[in-house]
């Protein structure tokens, strides 16, 4: 009697449209699963083409190449004697579906289309796919000739069905279906399905991992069963980092946990579990059994194959484990670092350049690059041949072995302090000391000559010379002179990124890193086309509060003592003249609000879906101990004025690592106008009326 089933799930670092690389990683995962004794292998969502193809899903090429890859998988001896579950887009009756294709020994068993599509936040699946709305219904799918030639099948089942093997029953969920209130696993479990599979394309957000884990464990806690989750990992071509966390759960408890952040392109989990544990668990839940007796049955696809062996009494099975979650500071250290590594190696550039100001934001960005160097050295030490090969390509040395993070940092990371007459010696010293401690190649330069040249051209043409407000100039003059400095730094950053390695006799160019945090972007506290304009930004989705905590984490874990003085200094742009050699300008004074307040405004605006009036109503209770209703009204109005005046800056925002659900990223996550009526007359009048009533 077979009862111990061996199943495998994986996290793969797939890349949109990299069919050759994706196929190779799928093959590697199947090989590992078979060598570890698994009889079923589950992969991530849309793993054949890569999840992030976006509008490429409209192209017939994407469908064609996906079937070509499927044919390679079907005909390979590597996929024999193991049920393989892979993801790809499929066109059925001229409708495009997000599907799982499940096959065994050169025969397709079932094509299962996604029922509930992800269509919120970063996801736009309804733009490219149609959900399968025919519950428990199966149709014939006519296979393309390229597949018929391999399988000998003309048609295969397509629809909402489950697989009945010789020893158990398996049902499929795809990503969003786990998060839906009416998840398929509920009805499938009542109909006797014992193993649930979920193929995900789920991205990292700070403090999100526990939600995913809780959903998986709760799926089998009430209903019993085995739940297997696979996920994409890495940067597959855009702002998201898919954070792995492949897992296997049984009866509400985790039995196998994959890593959330790693540089391994292929990670496979295998677990051997006792089906009798599922059956005995379900036996005593009378409410479940009463509901099961009335359930509408699923179509079953019979499979002449077993996930267990007939003589498995002595086979050891997996025991529950305690899930280990990362702290938010660890997540910031690891997630953006892995995202940067993927971007660097896949863009085939030679490293990064960062304008390092000596403030918290650029210092946090530098620390993330340093963390990346740590991860690379650790991966090489642990025998990761892929990482070693990529590192050698990046530094253009076929014999190089990265062993010391500081030494590797020197090769791939250039920092640049761009001083002006408004810069203090303190920030210059902080930037230099941090660069020494992380090992970056550091440049000190002065931009005053360029600033004077630009302003000189303006004066020559107009006959007028603008002045800072401390010298009697207007606010317009003051702002324009600050912006000139900021924009010159952007131009110089790109010049040095292109030519610094040339001056050092090294090949290649550098990617420019931005370092504007999510709160500054929300408020618009940045110059359009200044150093916030870069190639990519690893902290653009992270709040100032979290960055401060991350800096403290780096002090303790990387022994970067230079960060202590950076932590204690007030944030400043250093764009206005010094007073007695000391900084007089601070960020929070300039913005008219604190960073803590900005985080609250951002979460209420995006996550709580609050307009000006609703935000005011929520804050008069949240802040009742510290602010009068009139003060709350003033703060809310100021935020919305500044947000709407500066919203146009989001249209040119540097692509940023997505880490917060209140990100103002205009590209796809936060779709709003960029030309507002900034008086908000009706909304503010409602607030005033409420203030007067209070």
TrEMBL record:
E.C. numbers: 6.3.5.1
PROSITE patterns: CN_HYDROLASE
Any matching Pfam family: NAD_synthase
Family indicated by similarity: In the C-terminal section; belongs to the NAD synthetase family.
Organism: Circaetus pectoralis
Gene3D superfamilies the record matches: Carbon-nitrogen hydrolase, HUPs
InterPro entries assigned: C-N_Hydrolase, C-N_Hydrolase_sf, Gln-dep_NAD_synthase, NAD/GMP_synthase, NAD_synthase, Rossmann-like_a/b/a_fold
Gene Ontology MF, one: ATP binding
NCBIfam families per the UniProt record, alphabetical: nadE
Protein name as catalogued: Glutamine-dependent NAD(+) synthetase
Keyword Heme among record annotations: no
CN hydrolase domain mapped to chain residues: 5-275
SUPFAM superfamilies in the cross-refs: Adenine nucleotide alpha hydrolases-like, Carbon-nitrogen hydrolase
One of the protein's GO biological processes: 'de novo' NAD+ biosynthetic process from L-tryptophan
The protein's assembly and partners: Homohexamer.
Gene Ontology CC: cytosol
Keyword line: ATP-binding, Ligase, NAD, Nucleotide-binding
Domain of life of the native organism: Eukaryota
Pathway it works in: Cofactor biosynthesis; NAD(+) biosynthesis; NAD(+) from deamido-NAD(+) (L-Gln route): step 1/1
Top-level class of the enzyme under EC nomenclature: ligase
